[in-house]
Specification:
The chain is an alpha+beta fold. Strand 10 and strand 11 form a beta hairpin. The longest helix has 26 residues. The N and C termini lie far apart (63 Å).
Length: 316
């Protein structure tokens, strides 16, 4: 009888412990009917995109000498057998940057057909293209208007790993690394997902029947020329894309990863996608993060703003 009483007491303690844990987690979120409204008020910006490269040094050289970026940090992790570098047009605490990962012994990655390109805004596209050409870079589209009589001047170049960059002629902008193009299978669904789950705004949408595609620009703010945007593209009659293993994910800052995860979870029930990493604080960095994939399988990390800035200050 004594043993049975102890077992019941132990079971009660376990139930009470789980209840307290559940109550603690619930306290960190808001009710379902409020969380989607909160997302639109959250303090968010694009932090970085992660890509894998086969030669870190040659990639850094191309991005700094040809594209005009700065090497912001570089570190080797011999025990884990990889190296990492951060490049961009300004400091990480204010700018969208690229995080480059080199894994020992892997010299080539499959970029796949789903990832499109990154966009860079420049005031003098012709000089940039000639500089890239002089350094042996690959120009896949010479600078020129988008159509006869058009006002938008753009060009395409390729980095040493095969990643494509669209160069856009624009006035000075606070965010030169300005676009990530991802191909999607249902444009309206993708727009709705990023609006609801991530609080983005639809900044532009257009259809091009002649070239058989539709496009939408979504992001934070109200002007697509002043901020980084996701360029979502639907190509007529395409029913499948390959992801490859080159492009990894984009990271976005948030004031609360728990509320952010709750919002994403709600939206995935209706539109698809999945939380693949519930909110967690990594002990090595003390940064809270949650991760998900959208209905097309594109991965996003949501990172705590305060933790992110603290980690940057430690590096300094």
């Amino acid at each position: 009888m004594l043993k049975m009483a102890k077992c019941k007491q132990f079971a009660y303690c376990i139930v009470l412990f789980l209840h307290l844990i559940g109550s603690s987690m619930a306290a960190r979120t808001t009710p379902d009917d409020d969380v989607l409204d909160w997302v639109k008020k959250d303090n968010r910006r694009f932090l970085h995109a992660d890509i894998r490269v086969g030669d870190l040094n040659s990639t850094i050289k191309f991005y700094t000498e040809s594209l005009g970026m700065k090497l912001l940090s570089q570190k080797d992790f011999p025990e884990q057998k990889y190296s990492k570098a951060i490049v961009g047009f300004g400091p990480q605490d204010t700018h969208f940057v690229l995080e480059l990962t080199y894994i020992y012994g892997v010299d080539k990655y499959d970029i796949g057909t789903g990832f499109g390109h990154f966009g860079i805004a420049t005031q003098d596209i012709y000089t940039v293209v000639e500089n890239i050409r002089a350094k042996g870079g690959v120009i896949t589209r010479e600078p020129g208007p988008i159509a006869e009589g058009g006002s938008t001047i753009f060009a395409f170049v390729q980095d040493p790993n095969g990643y494509s960059f669209e160069l856009l002629q624009r006035p000075p902008t606070p965010e030169p690394l300005c676009q990530i193009l991802l191909n999607v299978l249902d444009l309206d669904r993708a727009i709705e997902f990023y609006e609801m789950a991530l609080g983005m705004n639809l900044l532009q949408k257009y259809d091009n029947p002649q070239e058989q595609f539709s496009m939408a620009m979504v992001g934070y703010g109200s002007n697509l020329t002043q901020t980084t945007v996701l360029e979502l593209r639907y190509n007529y009659n395409v029913t499948e894309y390959t992801k490859g293993d080159g492009y990894a994910q984009v990271a976005i800052g948030t004031d609360d990863v728990y509320k952010s995860a709750a919002a994403v979870k709600l939206v995935t029930k209706e539109l698809g996608g999945q939380i693949i990493l519930p909110p967690v604080s990594f002990p090595t960095t003390n940064i809270k993060i949650t991760s998900f994939v959208d209905p097309d399988g594109w991965k996003t990390d949501l990172v705590d703003n305060e933790d992110y800035l603290k980690q940057l200050q430690k590096k300094e």
